[in-house]
Amino acid sequence: xxxxxxxxLVLTFQNPILKFSKYILLFVFIFSGITSFxxxxxxxxxxxxxIEQDIKQTNKVLQKTKNKKNSSLHHLKVLNTQVKNKEKLLxxxxxxIKYNNYQIEKIIKSIEKIENTISTKQEEKERLKQEYAKMxxxxxxxxxxxxxxxxxxxxxxxxxxxxxxxxLKQIRNHRTSQIKKIEQNNLDLFFEIENLEVTKEKLTTExxxxxxxxxxxxxxxxxxxxxxxxxxxxxxxxKLSENKYKEKLKNQQLxxxxxxxxxxxxxxxxxxxxxxxxxKNNNGSPLTxxxxxxxxxxxxxxxxLPWPLEKGIIVQTFGKQKHSVFAGVETINNGIDIAxxxxxxxxxxxDGKISRIFFIKGEGKAILINHGSYFTVYSGxxxxxxxxxxxxxxKQKLGIVITSESENITELHFEIWKGKDKQNPVKWLYKAY
Length: 433
Known about the structure:
The protein is of the alpha+beta class. It has two domains: 14-238, Four Helix Bundle (Hemerythrin (Met), subunit A); 241-427, Glucose Permease (Domain IIA). The chain has seven helices and twelve strands. Strands 1, 4, 5, 6, 7, 8, 9, 10, 11 and 12 form a ten-stranded antiparallel β-sheet that branches. Strands 2-3 form a two-stranded antiparallel ribbon. Residues 1-27 have low confidence and may be disordered.
């Protein structure tokens, strides 16, 4: 009996779940790396898309004023904006390439691990095949060498017969169990190798994206250098007619001052009205409860107000700025100038009430909206579709932007005031930076 037992193949297998768990950590590490990379890359992509939209819009504006001699200053403003956008895009690409380079090192190591794991798994699979074949062969040898019935009836006594019967049963059960384990392990290995191959393919694709980014950066650099050259040529051209352009700048500043005077006058009247109304109600505040709530809501939306145009690029920012061509010349902007397409709809950036609709010579119509202690100004409309005293809501249509016939410029001037204090609209509008 001992000689027979010694011929029985006894295979020991690890639990498939425990065996597979060694590689779960590898998958978690790899896929968590991909996830974090995707999240960071996603933000970079969103920023990139926004910049590319601005560049596209700027190109449209540039094409309209390129051959208009009267609009050289405006064309220069737009060119400056485009150069800044291109520089932002290059910075974005640099960040993405830098981040990619860091991730590529991790990806290469991960691919190497996966390849080694696949090789190990293939070897393990081959070993299991051999063990399976060996077991089948030994089963065949057992059946042809030993007869179960003879083995049983040759027992010396009933006790030995019972033990031999139990032993044969254990051998059959063990063989069946081991065959099932081998089959399950083979199946696990098949899916594991498939998953590893898919992961390897994803990582390889990410690695290849690096080359595309570098190529994209080279193209953008060429475009940027080309536009810088155009900008420098335009500056030379403008300097040749310095007196003409300085006179034009002077006229623009006079119009800006006229607008500021009218705005201040209207705001003072609005503040006086609010105080008179508050005194009548004896609420001890310079604003009515309704106006106070409106002011608080307006203020709480700082940085997330909708743009006054659906399409547009900021070509002139807020505050005092040195002129990009003429030394010693400064311009002051009480708001921002947004270049856009002809016939674009101008809309309210928040709920409020139309305080005034007035006219600026050579600049079209202007609207001032009251938002409690805040006021917004929209200057450069050819058509107005609201009335004084009318309540308006966020994104409600106010009118159509005007286009200069002589210069082919379509531009909205937008301001925000808190009482008599000018605000930088860029800090209030959604993603205006």
